[in-house]
Amino acid sequence: MSEQDWNEEVAPPPKKKGLPGWLMFCGGGCLIAMILGSIGFYFVFEAFSKSMDPEENWARLEEHFDIDARPPELDPMFSWSLGMDFWMLMDDRGYIVVIYDFGEAQASERDAIFSEDFKGGGLPGLNKIDDPKIGVVNVQGRELKVVRFENSGGFNPGGQQTAGGQGPACFVDITDVDDPGFQMVFLMRGPGGEDAKEEISDEAIQDFLEPFVIGPDREVYVAPFDSEMEDVFRAVKETQELAPASTDD
Question: Which residues contact 30 (CB under 8 A, 6 or more apart)?
Fold first, then answer.
């Protein structure tokens, strides 16, 4: 090997890539914060996605309430657990629905809500109560406490308001007699329709609660077939009736 070869500088090996300088500067706490933030975002995103999944909402609702079958008129839109469990649903019969389960820890809220002094606020889906009227409604042979009122500045999940900014509404206490907690249904007239300004009747409350196990005087609710399924079953039945009967040889 020549002297020239010995005198040539050997190129240093490439440096391995490490953590960014700014991350090293702020210490390991930044890295931990980023990891925890990413994990937290993932779980929040997962929870929010499930909160808008109809099947997840029905499953959670059936865990909290005794329901014979899922009525086809109800479409779960959103649910959440925020100090209380609540579900927002759209009813094809012209209602916006919020179902609450306050649990035993907040059962004392019943006295405040079912009072003519309650002005609203603090409940998801509710704005301001006007002209509350306290009464009872007989559902399945059991008397339930009800408050009828005007929900000022009414809402729906699409962000629109009811006609005139108000909607006839009511609270119904559906807590089971042996339950130390507090469960409630909030019904409000949806926007538009000929009866959008009419008070919610006893019959409307009874119809809505038909699938729920409320009182002793009831029949098991059976959800009607979807209209498309009815057409399918009708066509199958007609085909069977028209088919020639088999004969033995």
Answer: 23
